Structure formats: C-alpha cells, structure tokens
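Hypothesis: this fold can be encoded by more than one sequence.
Test: take the structure tokens below, design a sequence, compare later.
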C-alpha cells in the first residue's frame, strides 16, 4: 500500500463547484493529488452520471489545467465489472479517486459490497484521497440520504435513507443544501438517528475531512451547516406516524464559511484558519 499508514482525506463537495475560473475546491483536490506519496494520478468515477463520458472529459480537462496530467477513467457500470480481479491494481495506481454527481443510489447499487467497494475502503485507510461532488458527496457516509421533500416540515416521510459507502462513520451528508432548502430533511434524518452529525453542504462549498486528526476544514464560496445530534434528549420518531411532524430537542446548529474548522472529537467549531482563508486572495 505504498507504505502509507494514514487515512486519506475526504473532500466532500456540495455540488456545482466552480469550474470556469481557478475554483478553490478543485484546486485543493489537485493539490492533494500532487502532494500524495502515491504519485500524482487522479481516477474519475462517473458511475452516478447518465452522461459519464462527458463528465469524465470535462473533469479531465479541468484537472489537467490545474496541474494533474494523469487523469484516468475508473468508471464501472455493472456489479460484475466492479467485482473483477484487476480492480485492486487500479486503486493502487491512483492517489485520488473523484466521484462525480448524478444519482447516489446508482453508486451504492452498482458498487456496494463489490471488490471495488472493499478496495476503496482499504486504500482509503492507506492514504487514498477520496473526493466527491453532489451524489458523490452523499454516498460518503455509512447511511445516506437518497430522496426527500425539502418543502415540508420534518416527518418520517420527509427523507428516505439507504446504506452509503461507509467512508465516514457517524455522519449524514446532504448537498445543494441552502439552494434547495434541505434543512428539514436533514433534521428528519437526525430525529431518526440521534447522535449523528448532520452535514449540509451548499453549492460551490466543500469540507476536507481528516479522520486521522478528527478535523473538518471548510473550503469554497458559501457555507456548511452542521447539525450536531449528540445532545439530543428527546425525539418522537418511534411513536410518530409516518406523516406526522417530528419533535426533536437538543440539536446544536453551526454555520461555517471558508476557513473555519470543526473538531469532530469535541464537537465544536474552530475559528477561521487564516492559512486556508488566504487561498481566496
């Protein structure tokens, strides 16, 4: 595994990241790729997208412009393909794996439980950077939001969930967050899973999650909303019918823009990191 003993960072993007200028989020992915001891090779997985080839070509051009010359298409479209013997070798040849947007359920239904999935988890534990945008963000957690009604008060029916890819335990991630008014469905997920960390990512905004350091850093133009359920002391989720409003007491809410960090161990925000913030200048 290249001798690496650290868990690779996760770069989790809320969708619609800047692709026309010197987008700070894709810059950061490129920087992590170039710095990796595994070598500056980025693998693209567009399994979630119905226009996978087009998505690959677009991202290849973007990352090559940002200094990552070797961008490879590692998309698989069937479970048989995801279980082939040569999958692990492909993982060992890349330093970053980037998941495009689309349908997160397609990612898990095609890749979940296959050799591809097992290799992803194993190589991430040995330094592989994993990045994903939109659907590629939602699939990062062990339980993911599949669909949900963003316009209604939280009920059991507000959100539908399924197993994710399990890269980040104890979190649930939602994307396009402020733009699509999704706080209700994230609260619904929290009411039914007290103790988790709900993560709402705005568009053109990302978090870099360092699980080995238990630290989250915010990158991008907008904000990340964190709903901390560790202090929840009441929810009526077990007794409420599917269409009745949910009650939930004790949720802590934090809104963090560019440069702010979050301590996962202490569950507390950390003031702006000037080193990160200076990337905008």
């Amino acid at each position: 595994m290249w001798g690496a003993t650290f868990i690779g960072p996760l770069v989790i993007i809320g969708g619609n990241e800047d692709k026309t200028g010197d987008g700070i989020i894709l810059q950061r992915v490129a920087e992590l790729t170039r710095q990796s001891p595994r070598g500056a090779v980025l693998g693209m997985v567009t399994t979630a997208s119905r226009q996978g080839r087009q998505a690959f070509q677009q991202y290849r051009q973007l990352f090559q412009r940002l200094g990552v010359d070797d961008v490879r298409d590692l998309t698989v479209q069937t479970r048989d393909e995801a279980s082939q013997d040569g999958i692990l070798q492909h993982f060992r040849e890349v330093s970053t794996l980037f998941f495009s947007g689309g349908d997160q359920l397609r990612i898990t239904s095609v890749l979940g439980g296959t050799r591809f999935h097992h290799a992803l988890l194993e190589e991430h534990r040995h330094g592989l950077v994993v990045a994903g945008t939109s659907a590629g963000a939602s699939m990062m957690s062990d339980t993911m939001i599949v669909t949900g009604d963003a316009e209604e008060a939280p009920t059991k029916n507000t959100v539908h969930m399924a197993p994710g890819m399990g890269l980040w335990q104890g979190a649930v991630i939602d994307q396009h967050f402020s733009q699509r008014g999704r706080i209700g469905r994230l609260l619904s997920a929290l009411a039914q899973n007290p103790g988790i960390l709900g993560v709402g990512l705005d568009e053109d905004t990302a978090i870099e999650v360092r699980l080995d350091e238990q630290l989250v850093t915010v990158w991008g133009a907008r904000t990340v909303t964190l709903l901390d359920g560790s202090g929840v002391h009441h929810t009526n989720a077990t007794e409420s019918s599917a269409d009745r409003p949910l009650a939930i007491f004790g949720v802590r809410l934090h809104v963090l823009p560019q440069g702010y960090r979050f301590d996962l161990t202490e569950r507390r925000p950390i003031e702006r990191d000037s080193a990160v913030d200076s990337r905008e200048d």
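Residues 10-273 form a domain with the Rossmann fold fold (CATH 3.40.50.880). The first strand starts at residue 10 and ends at 13.
Hypothesis status: open.
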